[in-house]
Amino acid sequence: MALSSDLEREKRIAESVQDSIIIGEVISLKTADAEFIGLLSNEEPVTPRGSIIILHGMGSNPNAPHIVYPLRSQLAELGWITASIQLPIAAHGASVDDNLALIKESGPRIEATLNYMRENFKNSPCVVIAHSLGAIMATDYFAHQEKLVCDALVLIGLPTLPSTLAEAQSTELLQKISIPVLDIFGSQDLDSVKKTAPTRKFALIKNNSLNRQIEISGADHAFNGLDDALVLSIHNWLTHVFKHPPSITLKRNTHDPSSN
Length: 260
Fold this sequence. Notes:
The chain is of the alpha/beta class.
């Protein structure tokens, strides 16, 4: 498989993260084609609520100060085991199309992280939280899972971007996801997020009674200054979801999700 990710840029990010990390433990994860880093919350709660995997946005990293760091640190304080990972990343100045070309490459990394959390922790319930391009990647991944690989999905600032790629049609792909989904965005978010919010909400309502859409007043795409509101909105929804397990029926067979 020819990789589209800028591996040299990934290497520089990994070195920078390892030099600057204060909270968390750096772990190394592998797919068949690449090795990538993750940041694991380094104090396991006595009674963990479950595990959360965090996926960053376009051009970002597993310790980004906006969205990622507040989520991974504050949710850990609230009793979750968190792991934020490095997704495939395009070169500096790459086009939107070049970034969208990374979507399929992200699937094996999500799969590898799910496997790691399942093997090393009590991985129930399991949650994936994803922002922006990471949210597009997560939507594509979960839309194609025929077995239950995780229990809930949180999408932050999910955009719909012009593209002919099937894997980039995030609003349509949402309709294929049966697990509980929280769609959260800001009132000052990108137009590509806000304009499709009503369509996303309609798809969510049809899919699962636990699905929710939340608009946070005053928040931009990076939730500047509103990290606490973001974290608490997510935590409160997860608490609600896992007090009331969803009644869903998924198509189950011997399909191996890693083959997607």
